[in-house]
Amino acid sequence: MVRVAIAGASGYTGFELLRILCRHPRATVTTITSRANAGEALADVYPSLRGHCDLIFQDTTPEILTADADLVFTALPHQAAMEIIPELLNRGVKVVDLSADFRFRDPAVYQAWYQEHTAPDLLAESVYGLPELYRDTIARARLVGNPGCYPTSILLAAAPLLVHRLVDPQSLIADSKSGVSGAGRGLSLTTHFCEVNDGFRAYKVAEHRHTPEIEQELSVLAGRQVRISFTPHLVPMSRGILSTLYAQLRAGVTAEQVRDAYHDLYGKERFVRLCPQGQFPSTLQVRGTNYCDLAWKVDPRTGRVVVVSVIDNLTRGASGQAVCNMNIMMGFDEDCGLEDAPWLP
Amino acid sequence: MVRVAIAGASGYTGFELLRILCRHPRATVTTITSRANAGEALADVYPSLRGHCDLIFQDTTPEILTADADLVFTALPHQAAMEIIPELLNRGVKVVDLSADFRFRDPAVYQAWYQEHTAPDLLAESVYGLPELYRDTIARARLVGNPGCYPTSILLAAAPLLVHRLVDPQSLIADSKSGVSGAGRGLSLTTHFCEVNDGFRAYKVAEHRHTPEIEQELSVLAGRQVRISFTPHLVPMSRGILSTLYAQLRAGVTAEQVRDAYHDLYGKERFVRLCPQGQFPSTLQVRGTNYCDLAWKVDPRTGRVVVVSVIDNLTRGASGQAVCNMNIMMGFDEDCGLEDAPWLP
Amino acid sequence: MVRVAIAGASGYTGFELLRILCRHPRATVTTITSRANAGEALADVYPSLRGHCDLIFQDTTPEILTADADLVFTALPHQAAMEIIPELLNRGVKVVDLSADFRFRDPAVYQAWYQEHTAPDLLAESVYGLPELYRDTIARARLVGNPGCYPTSILLAAAPLLVHRLVDPQSLIADSKSGVSGAGRGLSLTTHFCEVNDGFRAYKVAEHRHTPEIEQELSVLAGRQVRISFTPHLVPMSRGILSTLYAQLRAGVTAEQVRDAYHDLYGKERFVRLCPQGQFPSTLQVRGTNYCDLAWKVDPRTGRVVVVSVIDNLTRGASGQAVCNMNIMMGFDEDCGLEDAPWLP
Amino acid sequence: MVRVAIAGASGYTGFELLRILCRHPRATVTTITSRANAGEALADVYPSLRGHCDLIFQDTTPEILTADADLVFTALPHQAAMEIIPELLNRGVKVVDLSADFRFRDPAVYQAWYQEHTAPDLLAESVYGLPELYRDTIARARLVGNPGCYPTSILLAAAPLLVHRLVDPQSLIADSKSGVSGAGRGLSLTTHFCEVNDGFRAYKVAEHRHTPEIEQELSVLAGRQVRISFTPHLVPMSRGILSTLYAQLRAGVTAEQVRDAYHDLYGKERFVRLCPQGQFPSTLQVRGTNYCDLAWKVDPRTGRVVVVSVIDNLTRGASGQAVCNMNIMMGFDEDCGLEDAPWLP
């Protein structure tokens, strides 16, 4: 059994970690921390877990987080994460960080979109935690930067096209739609039920902070610098991301080549499911799971390929993927604790 | 491992059985049937289960259902259930029936609210599958009539008050609110998204067929004939039932006696959770689980007690309870396969 | 044209007043105030009104509110309302107050459920603004206490039964369900989309502040002191209240007498619609309007009558009724500016 | 007063016509027809209109529709529309057709995406009813083909860019999201509440029938043949369309030129509202109205412009626009009967 601590366990991603880990056969949650809820019992903050987990929220300090843990999940805001993680590592634990702080290869990029990076040395060491692309290095990592929710949905959709050089990398456009839990449990008018319900809107058009993260990984896949148009939207639902990806096919590329590219990259993957030809996925079919379901269509009229991916933003887009990374880091089966089927409806 | 078959597996309760059973450590689903989908692969009807279960829907016949099963769940419409169940029992399997056909003690009551009963002899044998009340007889049963969703939520709320003779049984009023999945997966204007979304309504006021089922069990608990006012309502949500129960306290009954009654009956129950004083539950906190969460308030101004219960109508109100009944019938732990924590959000 | 000012125009009820009044043929909104948004253009706070109304939010002071107004709507929190209203009246305007501050006849009741009343003399003068009951005194009033949303839905449902002495007044139970806009536009976890969506809950069980307001008016109707059980619930929808009312019929009362009572009281009312026998209303059918739609069922099994009423909490439950009161106070047709049909869906 | 008849008045667009027209100051609805509901009173089918309109649904025949009408709105399925419209015109009424049957200039295009056209001569006469583009010809038209909902949202977003030659017309990509009412009131699993609620999906990817309609009008605007990638998605909400449009800017085009193009084309339009710089619209802000709210962003990183448009699919995308077309055809003010502000929330 690996002993794990969760820093920032009172938010939605922290709670989702708890939900998964309290049933994980090879992990035990020993410590949960929360600045806002320190001293409170978990069941008082989340009555749904009454009877599942008797922990008390503690304060978020390196001492507490490492006192009884082999691995720490940091579900903290960016900046707060990089302030505490160096000390966690010094104390000998492994870390899966769910913030943006350790996802970037180049501190200058982080700085341009977030703020100055206070642990740039660790940036060089940290591994981008997308298992389908970096499984082997994750297995050896001490620090994993868990991918953002939008990037996960877009990178998995785009990877086969870029790896197999089927599209013009500069033509990529990602139109993404997210449920409201992506905005977290904090209070703002933009998450007020009446301002969201029965409406739909775009936000941070062409300026969302996930853009450089997406471009970094697309560039690796394409073998050249890539720029993408990325537009996030807010859907009146709690969970789920659907990304619609558009790309111009290179001259002569056939529908068969596209299909083969997806099957080649994902045919043996546990957590990527390819929809049958002509079916397009709903976010409902992956809720609460670590799946990414993919479908695509080659459109000869326009010479483009359209790819649709769906994930659960809290599971595959955050906590499920984090547990998957833990599994890889610890040598467990990748789907350990992540085998549940989704509810319907 | 118990081998189980599911008759009528393509509806919501059938699917919920599948979702639970495909991860059950002591059961294997060998057979799924559906008149509408016979011949189709499960994953084509429910893409969310792709990779979890490779079964093909077969036709709903006694031969098919018993060919490779020790126990059959019948998730069929009423009438269809009682037409097939006698033959299933003859072939030596146990049956948990999710329809209304085997919930009644008196065929005349069934006939007054449904239609003529074609297997009245089995009515005498069948056991009402509410584990908290009938655990011991369920354990010995060959045929369990799985309770209705509304009755489950109301009976669990009312039982301590009646068992301990704290209220006037004739004063009971149950105002219940259900998510839309309770209406099933069939098509009608009343489940059209646009007719439900952002609205709320009552239906079948004082004439819902769950009324006699509720009254039958309340009468057993009270030791006398009970009549209840029961009003169901439709909530624009997919899952969940909340029932608000009103009852007149007998003279002199104190808040402490009420509290003691709930703790006495449910203090050791695995699937009933009592909310801390002053907290009232949301249906969200039991989604996808077999829990019934209960809270109550004694109102000295009116001399009444108000009880609020929440369940997931598809899990505790149907398929989760059915699996729990199977567990009891097979001698497994009651929570076997039912241990998952709910999602939030 | 009557010139009107709206104090507290940036909340949902303030906005709803604006929406209605900016199309009212006999009223002109001259002044809108908001402490939070003073100095901002209306269209910047509510882009939906761009092109409809060019006003700028001003500060909430008596001078500003009365500078160019014959009548002021106060859509302020309780306490804030009674602090400013005496001075507004001194300056010669009429006032329709949407808070709880001037709904009570007895300052002691107000004090028991809210706080000390700072203008008790005006309590004696103010009129409870439910047009179906107090039309004539509203017409002569200088100050109207606009009813609460829950009380409106419950009083209209109960009035015929009490006026015609058809039920035992002490047997009344009101189980009410409201959309989220009833909680206002302020931020709290209870209105966070993810905490509300796809869930249902009760709150303030047997202790909601609308209870004494309901009881005050029920007692007037019954001609004796009435106590009611009142339970509010939160529905995952933006607008609407449905109240389900239960009452014990007096011995010998027939379904015909009940029907006659409703037709007698409401047969000529513009804004109360009686559903055909056997139909029960959805909140959707009154959205955005001043209607209260009513249905009832006499249940001979239990000797009770069940009444269902639906209103839009922001329109009939607040701002539409306030405009209706203004119409009566100014001698306009009651439905002036309130004639729109609801959307569907 | 113009006398109008509505063919197919029992669907959502028919109802929306009724809702608007029953309050229109210069029109009277004399006749409503519905094959499914012939003989039923309007208020029995739509209780929300009780007290607003006393009409009875009649059968859909040319005789009935023209007996007491100067203008007929045909809210019929495609094919059914073109079967009846020639006879309506022969009888001397004007027609606004809400189906796809008279939107196309080239019968071959219609035939390729729908079926054979049975009144190709009228295609040459009919006018595409987008007022901002074809106001003058609409004014003289006998037959108007009312635009589709998606095309309306996309054409209004794209027109300034094409008219002013600011983008490469072959680079256009339209990613659209619609509420469920766009699928109509008919029954199918895709509009079942539980299959839609809390989920999001794409459909008819690169093959939706609105594609040729969009391309026809884009080609006119661009002065050359245009092909577009168009992906519709289904949002768990009742009303509203948001389209996100992507286009490659021609070399050297500045943000100022883009802004000027929008202000040039729409600065004086009654029903197009341009959002302030940096604000992006929600569908909520145009619900129930004829507005199209637009915002755009020039992204120098990618050399693209991203445009976001929102409309109400039933109002601007169907019935509101149809009434606007009637206003133009009859010489009324364009906003006659269309002046209401949207609700919020």
TrEMBL record, chains A, B, C, D:
<dbReference type="Pfam" id="PF01118">
    <property type="entry name" value="Semialdhyde_dh"/>
</dbReference>
<comment type="function">
    <text>Catalyzes the NADPH-dependent reduction of N-acetyl-5-glutamyl phosphate to yield N-acetyl-L-glutamate 5-semialdehyde.</text>
</comment>
<dbReference type="InterPro" id="IPR036291">
    <property type="entry name" value="NAD(P)-bd_dom_sf"/>
</dbReference>
<dbReference type="Pfam" id="PF22698">
    <property type="entry name" value="Semialdhyde_dhC_1"/>
</dbReference>
<keyword id="KW-0560">Oxidoreductase</keyword>
<dbReference type="GO" id="GO:0051287">
    <property type="term" value="F:NAD binding"/>
</dbReference>
<comment type="similarity">
    <text>Belongs to the NAGSA dehydrogenase family. Type 1 subfamily.</text>
</comment>
<keyword id="KW-0055">Arginine biosynthesis</keyword>
<feature type="active site">
    <location>
        <position position="149"/>
    </location>
</feature>
<dbReference type="InterPro" id="IPR000534">
    <property type="entry name" value="Semialdehyde_DH_NAD-bd"/>
</dbReference>
<keyword id="KW-0028">Amino-acid biosynthesis</keyword>
<dbReference type="InterPro" id="IPR050085">
    <property type="entry name" value="AGPR"/>
</dbReference>
<keyword id="KW-0963">Cytoplasm</keyword>
<dbReference type="GO" id="GO:0005737">
    <property type="term" value="C:cytoplasm"/>
</dbReference>
<dbReference type="InterPro" id="IPR000706">
    <property type="entry name" value="AGPR_type-1"/>
</dbReference>
<protein>
    <recommendedName>
        <fullName>N-acetyl-gamma-glutamyl-phosphate reductase</fullName>
        <ecNumber>1.2.1.38</ecNumber>
    </recommendedName>
</protein>
<comment type="pathway">
    <text>Amino-acid biosynthesis; L-arginine biosynthesis; N(2)-acetyl-L-ornithine from L-glutamate: step 3/4.</text>
</comment>
<feature type="domain" description="Semialdehyde dehydrogenase NAD-binding">
    <location>
        <begin position="3"/>
        <end position="141"/>
    </location>
</feature>
<dbReference type="GO" id="GO:0070401">
    <property type="term" value="F:NADP+ binding"/>
</dbReference>
<dbReference type="InterPro" id="IPR058924">
    <property type="entry name" value="AGPR_dimerisation_dom"/>
</dbReference>
<dbReference type="GO" id="GO:0006526">
    <property type="term" value="P:L-arginine biosynthetic process"/>
</dbReference>
<keyword id="KW-0521">NADP</keyword>
<dbReference type="GO" id="GO:0003942">
    <property type="term" value="F:N-acetyl-gamma-glutamyl-phosphate reductase activity"/>
</dbReference>
<dbReference type="InterPro" id="IPR023013">
    <property type="entry name" value="AGPR_AS"/>
</dbReference>
